[in-house]
TrEMBL record:
Keywords: NADP, Oxidoreductase
Gene3D superfamilies reported in the protein's UniProt record: NADP-dependent oxidoreductase domain
Pfam name, any one: Aldo_ket_red
Name of the molecule in the record: Aldo/keto reductase family protein
Family named by the database record: Belongs to the shaker potassium channel beta subunit family.
Organism: Jatrophihabitans cynanchi
Taxonomic lineage: Bacteria, Bacillati, Actinomycetota, Actinomycetes, Jatrophihabitantales
InterPro entries membership: K_chnl_volt-dep_bsu_KCNAB-rel, NAD(P)_OxRdtase_dom_sf, NADP_OxRdtase_dom
Length: 338
């Protein structure tokens, strides 16, 4: 395993980071989820990312139980707050980045994780309905209470990150990371978010580097998705992956196989290694529904893709790549979820 600093902070994290979105507490049983976490630890992964909303809190519970007994100081554990969590019906303050929701959110996450603190506490989306000053003050109080060491954001626009960073500096806390979607097929952060983060000292913790599994090459143009794959999962996976299930996209992706083969990599390893070529990326988030997937993904650590291969990737994918930076704004909820 290779390690990188998270932004300009002094904390190092494993450049392959294990994330349990869409799997733990939802797609796979708890014992298999635990086996995946153990496989991650065995492969040298020390950094784990989750969120309170994943499987309505169950993902945090599964991760906490799986890490029980590990030396806490040797791990970096990340979680997030924004979306509603808890029993139905949800309350009017059970979403967003208000002081109330953030302070209640961190307490709930720590209880489910069975931990005293998290290394990174992230705003899962931007909250257009709460003053940013209130949000950042609440995060500062979480840090000062020793419940989180660093602060991050997820799917924020460049100007929102700049504003938050300025407030963080005034409050004396460390805003060190951004967690956006990023892959060969989804490059919307390259135009604005990455340059802003490079200037401010934030690192990217990128999710979906293999585009929901599409970049593994297992989805063939003109054929039904394999049984049991994410594209057939009606709990959420199928909805997330549908943007890529187009024959033109799938045909282009198959053209990546020779490039991966020339480098001695699987297509999934090529996809993970590709995002790690971006110097602003601190870590690539990978998930797994089977322990052996973890062992395969970590082989992307430390890989350098030659410039000519990077150019070939761009040529193969051509215009199926999404790169419009304005798309980032569409991830900000236009109204309260509740």
């Amino acid at each position: 395993m290779e390690f990188r600093h998270l932004g300009n902070s002094g904390m190092q994290i494993s450049e392959i980071t294990y994330g349990n979105w869409l799997t733990h507490g939802s797609q796979v049983e708890n014992d298999v989820a635990t086996q995946c976490v153990r496989a991650a630890l065995d492969a040298g992964i020390t950094t784990f990312d989750t969120a309170d909303v994943y499987a309505n809190g169950r993902a945090e519970e599964v991760l906490g139980a799986a890490l029980k007994g590990e030396r806490r100081e040797s791990l970096e554990v990340f979680t997030k707050v924004y979306w509603p969590v808890g029993p139905d019906p949800k309350g009017k303050n059970d979403t967003g980045l208000s002081r109330k929701h953030i302070l209640e959110g961190i307490n709930g996450s720590l209880r489910r994780l069975q931990m005293d603190y998290v290394d990174l506490y992230q705003a899962h989306r931007y909250d257009s309905f709460t003053p940013l000053e209130e949000t950042m003050q609440a995060f500062a109080d979480v840090v000062r209470a020793g419940k989180a060491l660093y602060i991050g954001v997820s799917e924020w626009r460049a100007e929102q990150i700049r504003a938050a960073h300025g407030l963080a500096q005034q409050l004396g806390i460390s805003l060190v990371s951004s967690q956006p979607q990023y892959s060969m097929l989804w490059r919307v952060i390259e135009g604005e978010v990455v340059p802003a983060c490079e200037e401010l000292g934030l690192g990217q913790i990128v999710w979906s580097p293999i585009a929901q599994g599409v970049l593994t090459g297992k989805y063939q143009p003109g054929q039904a998705p394999p049984a049991g794959s994410r594209a057939t999962d009606e709990k959420g996976g199928a909805n997330m992956i549908k943007r890529w299930m187009d024959d033109d996209v799938l045909t282009r992706v198959q053209g990546l196989a020779p490039i991966a083969g020339d480098l001695g990599l699987t297509m999934a390893q090529l996809a993970v290694a590709w995002v790690l070529q971006n110097r602003n990326v601190s870590a690539a988030l990978v998930g797994a529904s089977r322990p052996e997937q973890v062992a395969e993904n970590v082989k992307a650590a430390g890989v350098t893709i030659p410039d000519d291969a990077m150019r070939r990737i761009d040529e193969v994918l051509g215009d199926v790549v999404t790169s419009d930076p304005s798309i980032v704004a569409k991830s900000v909820p236009a109204q309260r979820v509740i």
